[in-house]
Structure formats: structure tokens, C-alpha cells
Amino acid sequence: MPDALIILVAAAVAAFIAVLSLLPGDAWLMTFVTPRMHRAGHFICYALLAGLCAMTLTPAARTWRALAGFLVAACFGIAMELLQRFRRGRTANTTDAMINAAGAATGALVTLAFL
After folding, report:
1. Is 96 within 8 Å of 46 (Cβ atoms)?
2. pLDDT by residue (tens digit) across 86-102?
3. Which of 23, 47, 52, 65 could be joined to 107 by an S-S link, Cβ 3.0–4.6 Å?
4. 16 and 73 Cβ atoms separated by less than 8 Å
5. How many CB atoms lie within 10 A of CB 1?
6. Does the predicted TM-score (pTM) go above 0.70?
7. Which of 43, 64, 39 is nearest to 53 (CA)?
8. How many CA atoms, within 13 angstroms, populate the side-chain half-sphere of residue 15?
9. What gap in Å lies between CA 74 and CA 103, rounded to an integer?
10. What is the distance between the alpha carbons of residues 107 and 66, in angstroms, rounded to a whole number?
11. d(Cα 103, Cα 52) in Å, to the nearest integer?
């Protein structure tokens, strides 16, 4: 995938995550989401984001690219959890932050295997 396209997809995934993360807790969409779906969604979205972030970096050593992808996605996940404190019906959740980081680590490692 060309670099510009990867950057565009990574930005779209980050925007998607931000919108869903910052919806009010009583939003109609939340009524359809079970706790298991919620956790799986966190894991998958952050794995995808970390992989895409690792792929967008300049040709550096594979390990550094994967580490940077992990750090970007994990920090973004922590920021989204902290911002939820200011949304109606939402709370910052340590478990969600850990799932975000686990997904980011998985995405970075999978990307590392294929870079």
C-alpha cells in the first residue's frame, strides 16, 4: 500500500476510534453493544491502529517501527480513556486502557512479523 494511503487509513481508524470513544454513554449505539463486543472492539481497533502506525513510519529498523506503532496506539488509547471522564455517562476505565494496550501490542507484533 502506498504510504499516503496507509496514513489516510490510519487517520480514519483513529477518527473512528475517537468518535466511538467519545459518544455519550447513553447514545443509542451503546444499547446494541454487549460487554464482550465492547472489549473485542477495543482490542481489534487498537491492533489495527498500531499496525498501521508502524507501517507509516519511515524505513527504520523493523523493531523500532513496531515499538513506535505500539507506543502511538497505546498512548492514543490512554488519552481516549482519560477524555471519557468528561463525557456524560462515560468513565475512564483502567481495564479498557489495558485492553487497548494489549491490542496495540498484538498489532505491533503482527506487523513486525510481516514488515
Report:
1. no
2. 988 888 889 999 999 99
3. 47
4. no
5. 11
6. yes
7. 64
8. 6
9. 8
10. 9
11. 13
